[in-house]
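User: Just a sanity check before I run the rest of the batch. Below are the structure tokens for the first item. I only need the designed sequence back.
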């Protein structure tokens, strides 16, 4: 199929606007063309707005190009795909979402004068910050002047977007009563130039888009500060600009892809009176980039000294090694610690707190050694100590288990906190216990291995155990969301491929993370996207199975669909709810089946009639409708309604 009339795309015309114009010129309703080029067999009008955002998902571009007679590249140029491709290596999933929020796909904006000139829809009209038509310098509209109805992104009736979706009023005769000031027009034209430049080919070869994400952020910082150096001292950022603080924080924690948003870039260059062309062609001084990199990534980390007075490395940092965490940050009960390190002599973890003071993180020294241990050696019971200090029993057992393991408790009571048996595989057992999602690990230790709390915490205080959890488990526990992206995506792709139902709880359980972590780090959108793909994939499979079932039952009067859906583990109601086009499609298939079955029965009856007619001819009997009806044992109406039999009678009359 090819259109005879082919039109040239207009500047910044949207893909739907172009297809709407060309289909109207060729006498075909746009929604009919949308059904043809829809990539999946089911067609949904709500997907049309995504043609401009994700053209390859819901539309067959190769088929569309063949029908309208232009290249796929030209079709892509009428979408936001060029901007996606431009920032492809810079943006994270969060940044892509922020770009989508810059566009309006819920309601349609239009210029009445452009409509009167034959323009159906321009992509630039859907950019939130564009409020004025760049050609006629009047405000863009989104409501009908007649019925005041806000216009949806696409008209669902037969009329094009030149007419109101509700009352069919001609929107091209609508007058804009508000006058636009010269200042606003100038500002809007500058915005328009930026968006035109973003979608062009020239921008790909500019310095800004030949660099990496870090250098792109450096470029933004350079524009904000308008200087070659940024002054960063320790963890404090000496700059009052909120954008600077945010960008530096992103760079410090290796999340530069969250900083490279188009929204932030356009806002900042607008503040600095720069165009997108000037920004992308700006040549940065190498000293600026190098200085920023050196200050954010110091070549060596310096640690404080060990603070445990019983440790052989007391007041020394020779045995300190770094614990790698997300942006080298750890969290303890809501408090932040930085530059974490473990002393290999005493196995305690140290870090700098928010005031940049070097401290031991888990209170083994301040509360355990200086508070709890003296009370225990004085003869106080553990529950008495709990009442006096307000410290939990588990914390007390943890500290005492550590001190007993290191032989720091007085010899008169050390036996009370030391196991009376030898345990060689305690590390493997504790590792196994900590993999299970349960808060109180001591209960698991008792159920699985018969360990008491004292025995569990004695083994937990061992040097090998403490170093294992500090250097291995903890670094994964606080892993950056971006580092989990690949794992989450791979697991979702695995479920999609193997047709395993995708749920948030299942993904969280498989990756050993919580549902809340997935929600907090914006993975729900990705999971819902794969759930939609799975429903669509499952829907397509059901479509195919339904067609096969209908073909198998083409000679049966009924289709027996209830048994079919029970056999395939899906209900008709589920298909109706999850696949909006299925109801209409299934009705068409049922209608076609009834028609085909009726035709099959008529042919069967005609074959019998043919045999009877041959016998009548041999016997010399006259051929009539009444005689055939009597022989076939049917009524006269059935004979008259059967075109095949009537044709046979006509041939032998």
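Assistant: Here's the designed sequence for the first item:
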């Amino acid at each position: 199929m090819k259109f005879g009339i082919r039109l040239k795309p207009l500047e910044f015309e949207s893909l739907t606007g172009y297809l709407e114009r060309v289909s109207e010129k060729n006498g075909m309703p746009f929604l009919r063309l949308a059904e043809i080029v829809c990539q999946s067999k089911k067609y949904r009008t709500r997907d049309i707005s995504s043609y401009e955002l994700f053209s390859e998902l819901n539309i067959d571009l190769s088929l569309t190009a063949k029908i309208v007679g232009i290249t796929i590249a030209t079709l892509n140029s009428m979408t936001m795909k060029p901007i996606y491709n431009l920032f492809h290596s810079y943006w994270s999933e969060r940044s892509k979402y922020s770009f989508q929020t810059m566009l309006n796909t819920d309601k349609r904006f239009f210029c009445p004068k452009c409509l009167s000139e034959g323009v159906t829809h321009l992509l630039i009209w859907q950019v939130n910050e564009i409020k004025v038509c760049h050609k006629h310098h009047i405000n863009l509209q989104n409501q009908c002047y007649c019925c005041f109805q806000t216009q949806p992104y696409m008209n669902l009736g037969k009329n094009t977007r030149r007419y109101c979706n509700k009352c069919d009023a001609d929107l091209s005769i609508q007058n804009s009563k508000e006058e636009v000031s010269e200042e606003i027009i100038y500002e809007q034209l500058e915005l328009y130039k930026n968006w035109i430049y973003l979608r062009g080919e020239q921008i790909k070869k500019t310095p800004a888009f030949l660099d990496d994400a870090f250098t792109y952020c450096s470029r933004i910082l350079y524009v904000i500060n308008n200087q070659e150096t940024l002054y960063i001292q320790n963890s404090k950022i000496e700059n009052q600009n909120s954008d600077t603080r945010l960008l530096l924080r992103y760079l410090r924690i290796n999340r530069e892809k969250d900083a490279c948003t188009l929204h932030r870039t356009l806002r900042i260059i607008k503040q600095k009176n720069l165009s997108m062309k000037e920004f992308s062609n700006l040549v940065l001084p190498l000293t600026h980039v190098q200085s920023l990199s050196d200050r954010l990534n110091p070549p060596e980390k310096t640690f404080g000294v060990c603070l445990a007075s019983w440790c052989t490395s007391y007041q020394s940092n020779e045995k300190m090694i770094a614990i790698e965490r997300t942006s080298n940050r750890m969290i303890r009960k809501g408090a932040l610690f930085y530059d974490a390190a473990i002393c290999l002599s005493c196995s305690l973890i140290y870090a700098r707190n928010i005031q940049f003071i070097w401290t031991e993180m888990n209170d083994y020294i301040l509360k355990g050694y200086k508070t709890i241990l003296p009370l225990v050696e004085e003869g106080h019971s553990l529950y008495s100590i709990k009442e006096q200090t307000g410290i939990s029993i588990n914390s007390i057992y943890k500290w005492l288990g550590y001190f007993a393991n290191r032989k720091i408790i007085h010899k008169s009571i050390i036996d009370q906190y030391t196991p009376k048996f030898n345990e060689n595989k305690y590390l493997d057992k504790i590792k196994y216990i900590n993999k299970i999602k349960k808060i109180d690990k001591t209960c698991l230790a008792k159920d699985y291995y018969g360990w008491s709390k004292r025995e569990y915490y004695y083994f937990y205080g061992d040097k090998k155990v403490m170093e294992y959890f500090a250097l291995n488990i903890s670094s994964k526990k606080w892993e950056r969301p971006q580092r989990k992206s690949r794992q989450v995506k791979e697991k979702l792709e695995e479920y999609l491929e193997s047709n395993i139902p995708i749920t948030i709880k299942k993904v969280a359980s498989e990756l050993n993370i919580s549902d809340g972590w997935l929600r907090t780090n914006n993975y729900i959108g990705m999971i819902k996207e794969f759930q939609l793909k799975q429903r669509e994939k499952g829907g397509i499979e059901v479509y195919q199975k339904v067609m096969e079932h209908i073909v198998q039952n083409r000679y049966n009067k009924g289709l027996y669909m209830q048994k079919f859906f029970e056999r395939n583990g899906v209900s008709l109601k589920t298909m109706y709810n999850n696949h909006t086009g299925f109801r209409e499609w299934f009705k068409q298939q049922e209608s076609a089946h009834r028609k085909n079955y009726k035709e099959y029965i008529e042919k069967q009856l005609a074959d019998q009639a043919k045999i009877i007619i041959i016998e009548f001819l041999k016997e010399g009997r006259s051929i009539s409708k009444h005689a055939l009806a009597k022989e076939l044992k049917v009524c006269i109406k059935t004979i008259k309604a059967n075109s095949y039999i009537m044709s046979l009678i006509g041939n032998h009359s």
